[in-house]
């Protein structure tokens, strides 16, 4: 899939379709809370497999039962269509 940097208007339109995602410091961002560390780590593993299939890797942060994900495309210096697609896949997990 071709990486295309999105405009602010495109990002606003797409993020409205992604519950709980927001833009923080120029990246798509969402926080998740789980019942345990094992549940959080299992979720991160699923995210890792989904992102690796796309060859588009998120920034994952984990402390105990919390996971924070940031999505940005370094090649285009911003948010791209790949970030939106990965966010959709993550929501489906």
Q: Could you explain how this protein is built, in words?
A:
- This protein is 41% helix and 23% strand.
- It is an alpha+beta fold and 93 residues long.
- The chain has one domain (8-92): 2-Layer Sandwich (Gyrase A, domain 2), CATH 3.30.1360.
- The chain has a four-stranded antiparallel beta sheet with strand order 1-2-4-3, with helices on one face.
- Helix 2 (37-54) packs across helix 3 (81-92).
- It is globular, with a radius of gyration of 13 Å.
- The two termini are 21 Å apart.
Q: Determine Rg (CA atoms, Å).
A: 13 Å
Number of structural units classed as domains: 1
Order of helices and strands: HEEHEEH
Number of strands: 4
What class do helices, strands and sheet pairing give?
alpha+beta
How widely separated are the two ends? 21 Å
Question: Might you state the CATH topology name?
Answer: Gyrase A, domain 2
Shape: globular
Helix content: 40-55%
CATH superfamily: Transcriptional coactivator/pterin dehydratase
The CATH architecture designation is 2-Layer Sandwich
Count of helical segments?
3
Q: Strands of the biggest beta sheet: in what spatial order?
A: 1-2-4-3
Q: What's the arrangement of secondary structure elements?
A:
Layout: H1 8-15, E1 22-24, E2 27-33, H2 37-54, E3 59-63, E4 66-71, H3 81-92
Antiparallel strand pairs: 1-2, 2-4, 3-4
Helix pairs in contact: 2-3
Summarize the structure.
By secondary structure, the chain is an alpha+beta fold. Helix content is 41%, strand content 23%.
Properties at a glance:
Putative pterin-4-alpha-carbinolamine dehydratase, lyase, Gyrase A, domain 2, EC 4.2.1.96, globular, 4-alpha-hydroxytetrahydrobiopterin dehydratase activity, alpha+beta, 4 strands, 93 residues, 23% strand
């Amino acid at each position: 899939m071709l990486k295309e940097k999105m405009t602010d208007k495109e990002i606003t339109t797409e993020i409205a379709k992604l519950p709980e995602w927001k833009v923080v410091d120029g990246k798509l961002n969402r926080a998740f809370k789980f019942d345990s560390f094992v549940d959080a780590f299992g979720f991160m593993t699923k995210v890792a497999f989904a992102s690796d299939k796309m060859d588009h890797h998120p920034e994952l942060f984990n402390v105990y039962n919390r996971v924070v994900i940031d999505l940005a495309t370094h090649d285009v210096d911003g948010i791209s269509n790949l970030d939106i697609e990965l966010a959709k896949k993550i929501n489906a997990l």
